[in-house]
Amino acid sequence: MKIAFFGGTFDPVHRGHIQIARSAVKRFQLGQVLFVPAYIQPLKQGDQIAAYHHRLAMLALATQSQREFVVSDLEAPNDIEVPNYSINSIREIKRRLRKADKLYFLMGIDAFLGISKWHKPSELLRECEFIIASRPGFSMGEVAAVLPEDLRPRKDVLNIARKQKLDFSRDPVQTIALPGITLHLMGDISEKVSATQIRAAAKSAGKARLRSLVGEAVAEYIRKTGIYRRATQNALAVKPERAKAEVIELSKHSRRMRASKANR
Ligand code: ATP
């Protein structure tokens, strides 16, 4: 069976994720897309992220009607609290595969453009073939140029490739095969949606708008749990308290100063 690993923060899962997974199933005859939410996304450490169980629950809701979509807790919280490096997950999945299985790594071009900053990027790129989906605002033309240095084609080759330009109008999937690595580019995906935009929208947008971005079930989950409202509520609740504490501290300080001046 052909299987795609699809990792991410999924905070929350949205129309863009579902669309690229659906296209990959169709184009590559995938039997399974493994949606793997990261407990600790190495490049998003320190960001405020919804609890792992909420992200997992939303994924379960969003993927329930598509037979090929499977949610995996491979990157669930663990005792050692180390970030979830994709290379470890990919190797773990490969250990569990049968001989006839083939693994792909599915991701969006925005994520691929930062691949050199990932943990052991060259090793990761050699582990399996990659399926990279286009995303509004990010150029597919730079795919070869952003590879880690040891895999990157020479400058003159890159320049020739740039001039040739990728043409997705004839075939929406273009494959770049370089020594040891294969990158399949799905160039006709144009989903103008991001989780960042949804977290913001969840605070103010109407029901219909949220539903159009994440689907009915996830929109209802977000509404019921209030996961993206809480951050603002907390922030509002915390700020006046902190401000009050600072005022009290300041007035204590000025009283002490006045008292010490009077005693001199
Ligand atoms: P955020 O806005 O919080 O950074 P995101 O919308 O980019 O989140 P992630 O969970 O970080 O979502 O993304 C998981 C994977 O899905 C990444 O490989 C990313 O490139 C891809 N992806 C997310 N949204 C889209 C989209 N609209 N089009 C194509 N790929 C996407």
Topology:
Layout (H helix, E strand, L loop, with lengths): L1 E7 L6 H14 L3 E6 L14 H12 L5 E3 L14 H11 L5 E7 H4 L8 H7 L1 E5 L21 H10 L8 E6 L2 E6 L8 H10 L2 H8 L1 H10 L1 H37 L1
Parallel strand pairs: 1-2, 1-4, 2-3, 4-5, 5-7
Antiparallel strand pairs: 6-7
The structure holds adenosine-5'-triphosphate (ATP).
Beta percentage is 15-25%
What's the CATH architecture?
Answer: 3-Layer(aba) Sandwich
* Computed CA radius of gyration, to the nearest angstrom: 23 Å
Profile the largest sheet. Answer: 7 strands, mixed
Approximate shape: globular
The distinct ligands, each listed once, are: adenosine-5'-triphosphate
Helix content: 40-55%
Structural class: alpha/beta
Give the strand order of the largest sheet, numbering strands 1, 2, ... along the chain. 3-2-1-4-5-7-6
User: Do you know the CATH topology?
Assistant: Rossmann fold
The overall pLDDT average reads 86
Distance between the termini: 86 Å
Number of helices: 10
CATH class group: Alpha Beta
What's the structural domain tally?
A: 1
One letter per element, helices H and strands E, the order comes to EHEHEHEHHEHEEHHHH
